[in-house]
# Entry
Amino acid sequence: MEEEKARRATLAELPYQREVAAALARALASGRLAHAYLFAGPRGVGKEAVAYALGAAALCPEKPLEGCGVCNTCRRVFADVHPDFRRYEAPALHFDIDRVREILAEAGRTPSESPRKVLLVMEPEKMTYRSDAPANALLKTLEEPPGRAVFVLVSHDPRQLLPTIVSRCVNVHFPRLTAEDLAEALVRDRGVPAAEAADVARKADGTLEGAAAALDEEQLERLEAALGMMEELAAGGVAEALGAAQVTRGREEALALVAAWADLTHELAAVHGGAVDTLRLEALEGRVRALAESGRLVTPEQAWEALARAAAALRDNSNVALTLEELFLGMTV
Ligand SMILES: [Zn+2]
# Structure
């Protein structure tokens, strides 16, 4: 779930920020397409996704000012390859005047194939880094916009914008996402089981990024717990490992443990294969390496077989404790 790129959809289809999208859709339906929008809100709440939806609505020939989502135009907007939909971000820490002039020149050109041109400018607050000249150049264009250009400014921190720029735009405020929306996004975009997604979403800060970070943290914790059990096993303690596994009584938890062990086995295989730089668990690298060198565990191939058998059995309603015991015995030599 990379920053706001989770999904491209039309205003009607967007999976989050539905109220914002609906308000924009209503304005468009009554023929009100502005020359400049300012999408403002915290990072990771879907602003960019809504900007693409607005772009599709502005350019789609099938459902004008709505967007069909499936025609050649909409699909090219979503894929970022439509000549009349341009996305600009600061090349480094700031937009310099040359870059801004490039954007403004593009705004003045005739659209290639559509009735208008949409210019998406990410983080325009980066136009006031050393001087206000880039921001002033943009302001001048916003004051007298070329007839067929639509600007969409996407700002994570609008307080840094020139007030005159803010007042030239239709301001659209993006609130933080609800836990329900975040949970849905985790299920849809990251394949997280629903119960876990709901849990993680509650710990997030209302942003997709926060949810991704909370998910990573949760997964790291789970991997660390699974690693601890595997260390017990390698030390010869099947009983100890089973004791630790007693905390995972439920079938869902046991399946999550099997998944965590499969991830760990992937790391162990990377160590076996000498591909150390592929290790994802940097924080746990020393422990994973010691485990790989202990000689107490079966090969990764055999481990995967045992894990697959255990997962199948658990899904097939087997006894959870017995299945884990069998798995633990199957993991050691
Ligand atoms: Zn379309």
